[in-house]
Each structure stands twice: as C-alpha cells, then as structure tokens.
Fold this sequence. Notes:
Number of helices: 12
Number of strands: 0
Radius of gyration: 21 Å
Amino acid sequence: MFESMYGIYEWGLDAIRFIQQFSNPVTYSILYFFTFLGNPISYIFFLSIMYLCIDAKKAVKLAYTAAFAVSLNTFIKDLFKVPRPYIRDASLKTFEEDGYSTPSGHAQTSSAFWIVLASMIKTKHKKTRNVIIGIVIFLIGLSRVFFAVHYPTDVLLGWIIGICIALLVLFFWDKLTPAFNKLPHSFKMLCIFLPVAFFLVFKPEHTSVLAIMFSIPAGFLYLQNKGGFDAASGTVVQKILRLLFGYATTAVLYYVLGLVVPEKTNPNYRLLHFAHIALCGGWFAYAVPLLCIKMKLAAGKNNE
C-alpha cells in the first residue's frame, strides 16, 4: 500500500518540512495543546464532567461516537499499514506514536466528536459556533502534521471518515432511540455489545477503548432502569464533589482490580484487561451517580 502511493507520501514529507519551518516556542506550545486536546485522556476528562454535571444522556452519545471512531481508526490503520513520516525521515521526528499512520486517529475522532457536540450546543450564533468547532478540528489535524506523526493525506482521510461517522450519528441516533427503548433489556445489551464484539474479534489488542465503548452505555442503561440521574441538578459545589467522588473511587477500583490483571504475555491478559476497564467504566456510569443521589449530591430523574 505504502509503496504504491510513494509519490503522495513524498509530497507529504515536503509539506511537513515546510510547516516545520515555522516552528518556534509559541507555535510548538499552541499546536502541542491541540494535539493533547485530541488525546484520549482529554475526551475522558471532558466526558466525565458532562456525564456527572451536565447531561448524562448526551455524554453517552458522545462517548460512543468517540469510542467507535477510535476503534474503526485502528482497524483501518492495520489494513493500510503505512509507517509514520518520521520513520521515513528521522530528521522530522518530534516524538513517537504507537501504531500506523493512515488515517489520522486524532483527525478522525475529533471531527466525529466535535461535530456531534456542535449539534448539542443550542445557540442563536450558529455560524460562530460552527467556525469555532471547525478551527478546533483543523488545528488538531494540523498539529499532527506539524509533529510529523501523520502525512497531510492521513489527516484529510481522517477528517472525511470522521465527518461520515458524525453524519451517521446525527441522522440515525435519535431516529433509532425510540425503537431501541422498546426492546427488552437483554436485547438492548446485545445491541450495545455487537459492535464491540466485532472489533474484539478483528482488533482484540485495543481492549481499553472497546471496554469503554461497552461499559458506559451499559452502565447508563442500568442507571435508567433504576430511575435515572439528573446530571444538571445540584449546586456548583455539589457537582465538584460528585466529580471528585467519581474520580477518587474509580481510581481506587482501577488500582485494586489492576492487581489481579496478569502481564501482557499471559494468554488471559486481553480478557481480564477488558473486564478490568469495563468494570471501572460501569462503576463510573452506574454506581457513582446512584451513590451521589444517596449522598444528596444529585437528584434522580424521578425527583424532577
């Protein structure tokens, strides 16, 4: 694949060299911020706040969108197997990244995530909102070229796939939700697990993202069966306290369960690692809101 597109990737290296001519402490810091904004930890931090403090239902929609985009991206990368630019020209290297180059995961996930998020932001200034979202997506993609971890074509392809994912979510999610809600609980869980199962079969090494892709919607589904959770309820202090409670208890659970997860060389590692992350995700999505309700840090939906 890589050799058949040699000319395009040579052009990509020239483009990276051109962009890196503008490197200085200011541009480096700005673009590093945007590349960090596209890292999984940034999505987890943002979504945790949205889930516990703003709107849990919308947070689940965004979390599933992002997790699906990441899972699909790694699947496609293994089909193309394109080495990263700094491997072909070591002089361009700024830092290393795992995996292959095409398409850009940052570009793909950010375009899917931020476009869906934009649809949730109700404002009279839609053009301003869309311009800001567009700039964020563009700068995240540009940062990946600047740091020579992706070719420009990787970013372009990532944007195209991400936009397609966003359009599918925007068109089908709300239309299918009424039919989904009428299903028996077991069938709902099956619908949540099937896409995860597909990626587990064909891309089993990325168990962390797949565990989140399963556990957050599943935890939210169980939470709904218990009467739901009003993320918007409570004072600012109460919201901060439930965030701290959620982070602290999930971190403790992550550490304790991690003690029984074997080394990566163990044949049972992937299964136990999936269970490890899924239990942590389920705890945050299900147990933390319920406990916050009991501690009077939040209200249930039935209390509205």
